[in-house]
Amino acid sequence: MNLKQRDRKHLWHPLTQHKLHPEHLPIVRAEGVWLFDDEGNKYIDGIASWYTCMYGHSNPKIISAVKQQLGVLDQVVFSGFTHPPAIELSEKLMDILPDNMAKIFFSDNGSTSVDVAIKIALQYYFNKGEKRNKVIALHNAFHGDTFGAMSVSGLSVYNGPFEDFLLRIERIAVPDEQNWESVVKEFKNLLDTGEVAAFIYEPLVQGAASMHMFAPEHLDQLISIAQKAQVLTIADEVMTGFGKTGLNFASEYMEAKPDLICLSKSLTAGVAPMALTCCSQKVYDAFYDDEISKGFFHGHTYSANPLACTAAIAGIDLLCSEEIQNNIQRINKRHLKFERHISNNPKVKSTRVRGVIFALDLNVQMDRYGKLRDQLYAFFMKEGVVLRPLGNTVYTLPPYVITDSELDKIYEVIEKCLDII
Ligand SMILES: *Cc1c(COP(=O)(O)O)cnc(C)c1O
Fold first, then answer.
1. Which tens digits make up the pLDDT trace of 372-385?
2. Which residue has the least CA distance to atom 11 on ligand 1?
């Protein structure tokens, strides 16, 4: 049996209806922006493997740091013990996170980082003796697949069977020029109930909602309004964190700073699953008490795994390097140039760019997981580029190490796909 056949025997893949999509392409090696399959074909990873491998696959600097750490300390319980990689990572993060961040809590993936943030927000008020049991989230948000994260997510394709089991969520529209006044009014009305513990949002770019982008000015005001009403604000930067929007964190585009920030995905440069929920001193202080039960009793077995922390440290060093910072600017400029070139094409409905994210809406009706989407995906793969259209949106979020000619290849296949629709 070949790899494809063996895969079908026991494996159940994420976000997949196996009856319609039985086959999964075996990838046997990856290097830089390239993925290699078992038949010797290669593909540009145009979405950095879901926004994780931003410094390129198998980056030598990250690999050598992790190999070194592997011979020193592999894993240790993070309750009662601490270790140098976790300490060093916390220090490096504090250098680049918004100034009001003070403490870091570890978990395993983006969804758990959101669950942790929600639990912290709810317990924050519980500890203060205030009853607040609602969370405000944005329409079409995506925050992950565990129950807490799923509750605040607004993409119903994923949530259907579980609607009756979710947390109490209120939803407001993503602000824009047209709806701004009604959004603010609705937001204030919700806050006035005194029942809201937290406001959670993906800052500036809603990734799963087809890379929907919105203005920092509006979000800035919503954060300020929430904070005036004593409601905690949670920035889910699982996708936007570590340079994707042009700055290290999307939260830097706003004056008002969140009380909590969720990080994962490219945190470990694609080497290991790990996530963080960062918070301000004010939040931490509500848990700091003589009473044991006021502590935060949440803990994942692999919290602060030393290998994952080491990968994260090496990743942050790369992010802060002149080379990567220049690359981010270079990719952004080239995206803008391609946008100017392509936006007048009649088959293009709209385009948008933020940092290294380029997205284009095709001028056609398409289902999120429909046939045309599959045709497009197959077309890109045949052309040697991994792009995963979201409905009628084609987007790229390439690794920072992508070269100009590799970027041109991505632009070329995006332009070519207009001929097949
Ligand atoms: C991917 C993502 C998550 C979920 O992260 P997982 O590691 O897949 O659980 C949460 N929030 C945002 C914004 C994401 O992009």
1. 888 999 999 999 99
2. 143
